[in-house]
Specification:
The complex is a heterodimer of chains A (584) and B (201). By secondary structure, chain A is mainly α. Chain A has 18 helices and no strands. In chain B, α2 packs antiparallel against α3, α3 packs antiparallel against α4 and α4 packs antiparallel against α5. The chains are: A mainly alpha (584), B mainly alpha (201). The interface between A and B is large, with 54 and 48 residues.
Chain lengths: 584, 201
């Protein structure tokens, strides 16, 4: 295929740490940026929770930043929940699991020296930073940031609904971060196709790489659709065009606001798989590594991931059942949506069969992995009534939806990101994170997430509408205040857990226990390198002979005295290949 | 896989053959274009749906566009793409001077294309159509303008290719940059045919 030469070693501070072309350093840049923005988006969520538990009361500690009266005002509320959603989806989870781990893992796991286009990779990061600056700048312009919800539906997001520069800046920031994502996607797809080490066949790739690669394909194809929608919305706002403007605002010629929803969800539904596919991939690897068993039915998992990728583009209509869609169209979308359950169940069963009777090692990454299985299982089940028209019509605008998508694309991807941070931290920084603090972080995070979103789903089932500034304005919601306060308690427990993580992370970067080359005793290619790896990764590109999960093979144990085999080592002669590691 | 050469002894200095690196770059460009196709596909979808909603096209009272020059522009785009193809063929035979001439021809045809597009837009403007009048105006100016922006990027690239060609930067063995821009130029040309059908038919 293609083989890169070893880059000259970066000498100066600027080429080494700032404008670097080394994918591992870019991964760290994405990681730090994403964690900071995650903390910011999380803080916004805590303010929303405060308002729903203690409406109208002064926000403690950061109240003076929220409004002059220190309480959440209606305008401030709109901006806070809009920016929470946008920051979490586009500026926290995306750069965390795709930006940081996509960059780190793809070249290392396939045996490449760097990305296919290292400079494009650098631009991708700095364009992302530019978008984040535009986004944050929106908070400081007169009128404040965007307030039309993360979906930015017109007419609310138009000039009449949301006047001022803030909304325009946020839409622009979305477009700019889209450019960064597309640059990354081109790099990821090309690298996996062209730079796999000799012997690294498609069916020997670690599942993490599969997930990240399929996500890159979805990003490449669907983010441009959001880009188009954003450009037209911006043009409606800045130049007075009439793409999405209708009714009395439009004058004689009528545009169509629902058109924006079609474009948004054409992108938006693939987006939820964009976030979850890497999480599924990473999960597939980690469950196998810590159960000391090959991933159950590896090929089935791969084909299911591909099936989900293919289906994700043709189910978006289930976000729009309540827009007055033609019944035949709605029914088609319902059938297609529920079809996605089939590959999802295959994945789920494969995870359970992977850990079944394994010699589990319950280290922190594995705990987080099991946490993903748990929250994704529950989150997935609560999605079925939303894919079905008859139940969706009742549930659509309630907190049920909020609880459901937070469990699947929020909690599941977040827990998978944490699993990845704990698992690959030794490779990135050469040090281990503290196990004790990690386990404490796991329990606080998982209990917090599960509790908050379970109660939220229940509150939604009881009829509380989403997005309301003060839900208790309505008599029928008044009685739900204690439930909302319970959700808030869980949310604050969750937030407290993140301080444990921040402390553990920063302390371990500087003073963690030295990690060896392969602290987890697993066989994928990155663990054949020193921790952290040299700037060129591989001085000699390895030849791959074995699958990624060759673990717990008794013949290997007998011949080598250990229960795992590196991807560069052949199974000892005479020993049978274990399931899933067959030489494809 | 499996066709990979055995790793050479001095792997530090080793570079993949030019053909392998060129194939990687071409794949990257093809993926970029695939993404951009989706971007314009969304714009075309908007165009078709809004047309269906409006019923008559142009809406009553709006000036109808002169279709002649936009139609001629499909031909001009095709000719410029053919000229680009001829340039690459010449380069493969190492006829570098003829190559530069063909690139300049491509650039000239591109300029004519841009001029005719501007003429069409100015004509509509003088007859009172504004982007804010109705979705009809928004689509005509918005889509043509966005396309023209992409043509302009291509024109700048062609100028750079021409100056590099004159300075003999390209040869039969080294022409991948030119090939990448040819993909882009063909994409922009074909795009105009699609936009023409969506907006002027």
């Amino acid at each position: 295929m293609d083989l890169q030469p070893i880059h000259p070693e970066p000498r100066s501070f600027w080429t080494k740490w700032v404008f670097t072309i080394d994918h591992k350093v870019i991964a760290k840049q994405f990681l730090w940026t994403a964690l900071i923005l995650l903390a910011f988006g999380g803080t916004l969520a805590m303010i929303i929770r405060w308002q729903w538990a203690f409406p109208g009361q002064e926000v403690p500690i950061i109240g003076s930043l929220v409004s002059q009266s220190k309480a959440v005002t209606p305008t401030a509320y709109n901006k806070i929940f809009t920016m929470h959603g946008l920051i979490m989806v586009f500026w926290a989870i995306t750069p965390l699991i795709i930006g940081a781990f996509g960059n780190l893992l793809i070249p290392l796991m396939i045996g490449a020296r760097d990305m296919a286009f290292p400079k494009l990779n650098m631009y991708s990061y700095w364009v992302f930073v530019l978008s984040a600056i535009i986004l944050i700048a929106a908070f400081f312009v007169p009128g404040g940031a965007a307030g039309a919800g993360w979906t930015t539906y017109p007419p609310l997001s138009g000039n009449a609904g949301m006047p001022g520069l803030g909304q325009s800046l946020v839409v622009l920031a979305l477009f700019v971060t889209g450019i960064s994502t597309i640059m990354g996607a081109i790099n990821y797809i090309t690298t996996v196709i062209r730079f796999r080490a000799p012997g690294m066949t498609w069916m020997k790739m670690p599942l993490s790489v599969w997930g990240l690669w399929l996500t890159a394909i979805l990003n490449l194809l669907w983010v441009p659709v959001l880009g188009s929608a954003g450009l037209m919305l911006l043009s409606d706002r800045m130049f007075g065009t009439k793409f999405f403007v209708a009714g009395a605002l439009a004058g004689p010629g009528q545009g169509d606001p629902v058109l924006f929803q079609h474009l948004f969800w054409l992108f938006g539904h693939p987006e939820v798989y964009i976030l979850i596919l890497p999480a599924w991939g990473i999960l597939g690897d980690i469950l196998s590594f810590f159960s000391r068993k090959p991933a159950y039915w590896y090929k089935g998992t791969v084909y299911s991931l591909i099936a989900v990728t293919a289906l994700s583009g043709i189910v978006y209509g289930h976000h729009m059942y309540v827009t007055g869609m033609a019944p035949a169209l709605g029914l088609s979308f319902e059938i297609l949506t529920l079809t996605i359950s089939a590959p999802a169940v295959i994945l789920f069963i494969n995870w359970l069969r992977t850990i079944w009777k394994g010699s589990m090692r319950l280290h922190t990454p594995m705990l987080f992995g099991l946490g993903v299985v748990w929250v994704f299982g529950v989150g997935g089940l609560t999605g079925l009534p939303l894919g079905t028209i008859s139940t969706d019509l009742y549930l659509h605008d309630t907190l049920w939806v909020v609880g459901h998508f937070h469990l699947t694309m929020g909690a599941a991807t977040l827990l998978a990101s944490f699993a990845a941070v704990y698992f690959w931290f030794p490779k990135m920084f050469g040090r281990m994170m503290s196990e004790g603090l990690g386990k404490l972080h796991f329990w606080m995070t998982t209990i917090g997430l599960t509790g908050a979103f379970f109660v939220m789903i229940y509150t939604g089932f009881a009829g509380q509408q989403r997005r309301l500034f003060n839900p208790y304005f309505y008599d029928y919601i008044k009685d739900l205040l204690p439930l909302n306060q319970l959700t808030t308690a869980f949310a604050y427990f969750l937030a407290a857990g993140q301080f444990v993580f921040a402390f553990n992370f920063i302390k371990s970067v500087f003073a963690g226990k030295e990690a060896g080359d392969n602290p987890w005793e697993v066989g994928t290619l990155e663990w054949t390198l020193p921790s952290p790896p040299p700037h060129y990764n591989f001085d000699k590109v390895p030849t791959v002979v074995t699958g990624p999960h060759e673990m717990g093979n008794p013949a290997v144990k007998k011949a080598l005295g250990r229960d795992w085999l590196s991807q560069t080592e052949a199974v000892p002669s005479g020993a049978p290949c274990t399931a899933g590691a067959e030489s494809a | 896989m499996g066709t990979t050469d055995p790793p050479p002894a001095n792997i530090v200095a080793y570079r993949s053959p030019e053909t392998a690196r060129a194939a990687t770059a071409r794949l990257g460009m093809q993926l970029f274009i695939a993404g951009w196709v989706m971007m314009f596909a969304a714009l075309l979808l908007v165009c078709f749906l809004l047309r269906a909603r409006l019923g008559t096209w142009p809406p009553p009272g709006e000036p109808s566009a002169n279709r002649l020059w936009p139609a001629v522009n499909i031909g001009i785009a095709a000719c410029s793409s053919l000229s680009f193809a001829a340039a690459i063929r010449m380069l493969r035979q190492d006829r570098r001077r003829v190559f530069a001439t063909f690139i300049l021809t491509t650039f000239g045809l591109g300029l004519v294309f841009a001029a005719l597009q501007a003429h069409t837009a100015l004509d509509l403007w003088s007859r009172g159509l504004r982007p804010s009048t109705s979705p009809y105006g928004s689509l005509l100016y918005g889509l043509s303008g966005f396309h023209l922006l992409h043509v302009s990027v291509g024109l700048v690239a062609l100028l750079v290719l021409f100056s590099q060609g004159v300075r003999r930067k390209f040869s039969a063995a080294r022409h991948n940059t030119v090939t990448l821009w040819r993909y882009y130029w063909d994409f922009v040309g074909i795009l105009w045919a699609a936009l023409f059908v969506a907006m002027f038919m």
